[in-house]
Amino acid sequence: MARLGSVKYQVSQILQNVNGIGTSKKDSRESGVKSLESGHKISVKVHSFKSLENLKNDLTNLATYAKTEFKIQDIKAINIDIVSSWIESKNISYNTASNYMSELNKVSDHFNFTKEEIKDLRADLKKELPTTKLETRAYRNLEKIELKDKHQVAFELQRDYGLRVNASTHINLDKQLNGNTLTYREKGGKLGKKELNPTLAQKIKENAVDGKYEVNKRTYARDLQKKIEESGQKYNGTHGIRHSYAQKMLETNSKAEVSQEMGHSRVEITDTYLR
């Protein structure tokens, strides 16, 4: 089996393929990819030294994160869940995240995600992230927020147990709910487990259809945004609930315990939630 080489080496191989310095941007554009923003064709090459350096730094950062957090040795195995987790680990604005998405759109052929997945993630981030960087994404008060019945279940899973929106909106009762114990997959395939209060476990069952509790993420987010803004708070996306959960946990637990409860492999990631 051939050796993969270091992160630095693997990134350098991608950069060789996209290095378009000294070549015609117009010619490259004709055989390029669609822009995430305009839909017009853009070059898959990088035509300036500054952009190439930025791409090198960002790909190295992503690959190092994937290696540290998910034991990924071959950067071609990095999928969209890992990209999403990488973005989540940073305290960044949508504008910064959008720049990352544009870079990854150019080099998606070298990874285990598609241009369509990048486009969908970018659309989700636009709803979730602030336009400019915030000191905190946590909400001041969530106790009085009441959503529509099915949405309320997802909301309580996020508010009271710190689940991500994907885990809180799709539950297969036979496979995931054993009594009051909920098992679920974190980003990157990590297994999570929470012991729910009996009332919430019963609500999940009551709102299930054909053995599955499912909520449309976008309609849930719209309902949440409406109620958050009605309460006088700024809407910081569904993930802001997870930030609130982490900060509430810290009131009675150590940072290491909060990190473990959040499913983070490193305390440094948890720091992003505790600002």
Question: What's the short version?
Answer:
The protein is 54% helix and 8% strand. The protein is mainly α. It folds into two domains: 7-128, no CATH class; 149-273, Orthogonal Bundle (hpI Integrase, Chain A), CATH 1.10.443.10.
General description of the model:
The chain is mainly alpha-helical and 275 residues long. It has 2 domains: 7-128, no CATH class; 149-273, Intergrase catalytic core (hpI Integrase, Chain A). The chain contains 14 helices and 7 strands. The chain has helices at 7-18, 25-30, 49-70, 80-88, 94-107, 115-128, 149-161, 165-169, 173-176, 198-206, 217-230, 239-250, 255-262, 267-273; strands spanning 33-34, 41-42, 170-172, 177-178, 181-185, 191-195, 212-214. The strands form 3 sheets. It has a 3-stranded antiparallel beta sheet with strand order 4-5-6. A two-stranded antiparallel sheet has the order 1-2. The protein starts with 6 loop residues before the first helix and ends with a helix.
Inertia-based shape:
elongated
Largest sheet: 3 strands, antiparallel
User: How many helix segments?
Assistant: 14
- Portion in strands: 5-15%
Number of domains: 2
CATH fourth-tier homologous superfamily of the largest domain: Intergrase catalytic core
- Percent helix, as a range, is 40-55%
Radius of gyration: 20 Å
**Structural class estimated from helices and strands:** mainly alpha
Give the ordered list of helices and strands: HHEEHHHHHHEHEEEHEHHHH
**How would you write the strand order of the largest sheet?**
4-5-6
Unreliable parts: none
Terminal Cα separation, in Å?
A: 45 Å
* Overall CATH class of the largest domain: Mainly Alpha
**Rounded average pLDDT:** 87
